[in-house]
Every structure is written in structure tokens, then in C-alpha cells.
Write a structure and sequence with these properties.
Blueprint (H helix, E strand, L loop, with lengths): L12 H16 L16 E4 L4 E5 L6 E8 L4 E3 L4 E4 L5 E5 L4 H6 L10 H11 L10 E2 L9 E2 L6 E6 L5 E7 L6 E7 L3 E6 L4 E6 L7 E5 L1
Antiparallel strand pairs: 1-2, 2-3, 3-4, 5-6, 7-14, 8-13, 9-12, 9-14, 10-11, 10-13
């Protein structure tokens, strides 16, 4: 570790030699020390042994820029968290660092960055709805013929209806309550199952009247 003002003064030969050697040692050790060199120059390098950080002086010679961390324990160079990735013109194109879990889960951030497998998993689970049957149970809601219902569960549901005796029944469904189309029908001791997308409307009908044998919904 050595620091020097890098200025060789007029002096005797032996003193000049010692001064030159001191300046070269400072250059060779990147002016290393736990405190900044007392004399600084624009674009000067300094290895801060107090924080294990390699620094460079600004062109205005008024601040130190941290370049990276030197891990003396594992003899490796480390990049600081939240280091900006920039174009040749200095415009930011990415970020070497961590971003909050909420940023990944919202899926709205545009900054290229590092992400852990756990955050990728959390983002997928947050942005992609679970499929039919996940978190749902078979239920037997109270339903009436020729009444239009809407699936407002936030995910698809499955409707299972069965007919008894000489009944002929069917199910109409559509994206609006005024545009229902028959998608399933059954007659004479038969039944059917249909998937109703989220937000869609559906209505069951029974041509012959009478009560339904069963009406279940996976929701």
C-alpha cells in the first residue's frame, strides 16, 4: 500500500530517486489505502482498502466513482448491486441488480434486470390464472329453468346437469345475456357437462318441464 502526490520536486539525486520510487509504488498499488490520496487528479485510480472498493476520480476531479468490489477473501472481482447497463452513448438499457417481487408479479416493469427462479415462479403464478379445477369444488347451487346466470368466479367453471323421466333439457351460453346459443342438450335419462368461461352467461332449459335430476357446478 502506497500513496504519493506523483510530483517529483527539484532535489538531490538520491532524494529524487526515492521520490520517483515512491511515485512508482503508488502507481503500482493503485494508490491503495484506507483513505483517499491527499493529492488527486482527474481520472485517477484509487483502491480503497477500507471498503475493498476500486474507485476512479471524476473528470472534474471532485468525486470518486466506485467501479467494483474486490473480494479479498475469495480473490474475485464483484459487481455492485444496482449497477446500470448502458449503451455506448450512456443511455440506460438495463440493470444488474435485484428488483422487488411486486415488480415481477405486476409484469409491468420494462427495465431489463436480474431475476431469481423464485421470482419467475411467483410472477407466473400471479399473472397466469390457475386452470379449471384448481382451487374449485363441486357445488350444488339452487338453479331454476330459463333463468340466465353469469360466471363471475374469475375463472372457468364446469356445469353438470342430468335429466330424469321423459325430460329434454339443454344449456345455452354466450358472452352476453342477449346472445345465448345452445351448446349442449340431453333427453330421456341423459345428462351433459359444459365449461362456462369466466364472465360468460348461461341458461338451462327443460322442454318437457319437470324437475332436474341433478345440477352441479365445479366452481
Amino acid at each position: 500500500m502506497s500513496q504519493h502526490d506523483l510530483d517529483i520536486a527539484n532535489q538531490t539525486a538520491s532524494s529524487a530517486r526515492a521520490d520517483i520510487n515512491g511515485a512508482l509504488k503508488a502507481l503500482g498499488s493503485t494508490s491503495s489505502g484506507s483513505s483517499a490520496p491527499s493529492t488527486t487528479y482527474a481520472n485517477m485510480l484509487w483502491y480503497d482498502t477500507g471498503s475493498n472498493t476500486l474507485k476512479m476520480r471524476t473528470e472534474a476531479d471532485d468525486q470518486w466513482i466506485s467501479i467494483g468490489y474486490l473480494d479479498q477473501g475469495s480473490d474475485a472481482f464483484r459487481i455492485f448491486d444496482d449497477t446500470l447497463v448502458v449503451s455506448s452513448g450512456g443511455s440506460q438499457t438495463g440493470l444488474i441488480g435485484d428488483q422487488s417481487t411486486s415488480s415481477w408479479q405486476s409484469g409491468t416493469g420494462t427495465t431489463e434486470s436480474l431475476v431469481s427462479p423464485a421470482k419467475v415462479k411467483a410472477a407466473i403464478e400471479n399473472l397466469v390464472p390457475s386452470g379449471l379445477g384448481s382451487g374449485q369444488t363441486w357445488q350444488s347451487p339452487s338453479r331454476v329453468w330459463y333463468v340466465i346466470y353469469q360466471n363471475t368466479t374469475g375463472k372457468p367453471i364446469q356445469v353438470s346437469i342430468g335429466t330424469g323421466a321423459q325430460n329434454t333439457l339443454g344449456l345455452r351460453a354466450g358472452t352476453t345475456s342477449g346472445s345465448l346459443t345452445t351448446i349442449a342438450a340431453a333427453a330421456y335419462y341423459s345428462g351433459f357437462q359444459c365449461i362456462i368461461p369466466d364472465g360468460h352467461y348461461y341458461e338451462a332449459y327443460n322442454i318437457n318441464g319437470g324437475s332436474v335430476s341433478y345440477w352441479h357446478e365445479l366452481r
